[in-house]
Amino acid sequence: MENTPTPMTADAVLDREFLEMRAKILELAASFDRLDRGEGGINDDRRMELIREALKLLEDPNAGRAEKIQLLFSREYSGSWRNEFGI
Amino acid sequence: MYYIDPHIHMVSRVTDDYETLSKMGCTAMSEPAFWAGFDRGSAESFRDYFKQLTEVEPKRAAQYGIQHFTWLCINAKEADNVELSREVIAMIPEFLDCPNVLGIGEIGLNKNTKNEATIFLEHMELAIKYNQQILIHTPHLEDKFQGTKMILDMLTDDSRVDPSRVLVDHVEEHTVETVLENGFWAGMTLYPVSKCTPARAADIIEMYGPERLLANSAGDWGPSKPTAVPDLIFEMRRRGHSEDLIRQVVYENPIKFFSQSQNFNFVRPDGVPVPSIQ
Ligand SMILES: [Zn+2]
Fold first, then answer.
1. Beta carbons of B211 and A85 less than 8 Å apart
2. Ligand 1 mean position to A36 CA, how many Å?
3. What global pTM score does this model have?
4. Distances A5 to A2, B51, B86, B234, B239 between C-alpha atoms, Å
5. ipTM value of the model?
6. I need a surface site. Which of A46, B26, B89, B145 has the fewest CB within 10 A?
7. Which domains does chain B have, with CATH numbers?
8. Which residues of B touch A85 (CB under 8 A)?
């Protein structure tokens, strides 16, 4: 599989996406604030754990962050599923 | 630019959508059989649905200069009902000679259950028996990775399946590589929230190249956008990609894949006929 590198420079990508990225981070920040203001505890909720893990992956210096975040939110696969199902 | 939407559910769209798609350059589309948003009560209900797909939609599309093709099956969600599924599978051969039928699809998994896998294998048998191409639905969200791996297991475990005649749809960052590596075609579905955005689809094209990659809107009864493929074209142009590269993904690749179906009698808008390979 041969890739087709992006014709845009990193500078051009940042110019185009800076405001968008800023806006997405703000949306997340506001969501966390909203969760805080709501009644009840969610700290033990598995979904919050996943979100905290995902935020850490954003800071990963290596590429493939989108793939890693996808995998984080995925159910596990077992190679022996056909045996388990008996099919 | 002319384009083909290889996965769109027009039974759920209004006629205005045909007009809009036509004006945006859509020359052909393929519509896999899918879930109607509710579980159907009997196999006869599927017979009517298959008539809609093979008789009604091609006419509706033709009014706007669009060629309509289709795929038949019982979808992964209703496939959990094994008894109903077997009745529907038994009925499908009646429709395989309809002029717009390209193969069996979209078969797949939904919650990755034993029943769904059982019916997936029976659909596979049907496709092999009638030498049909296969279009595959992979599950959504947390079920996608596991379900895609299970589907690939079933396909690659059977040496009678030719991967170059199978399209695996709804691939995303964590599933596209293994689908392509195994020789299958991969479809990216541009769909709000639960699937891929035009920007992420363009990223995938940049990371893996255009070979055996398709893009579709999956426009259906849910929150979806039937004009999503033109959105991808626009995104790729904004990034400065060549027209040739864009055309390969949205036009030439679907023609190449569909041409392996006996019934793909596509007429290019420029008048050049595309001979079917089989
Ligand atoms: Zn679909």
1. no
2. 38
3. 0.96
4. 9, 45, 47, 17, 11
5. 0.93
6. A46
7. 3-274 (3.20.20.140)
8. 114, 117
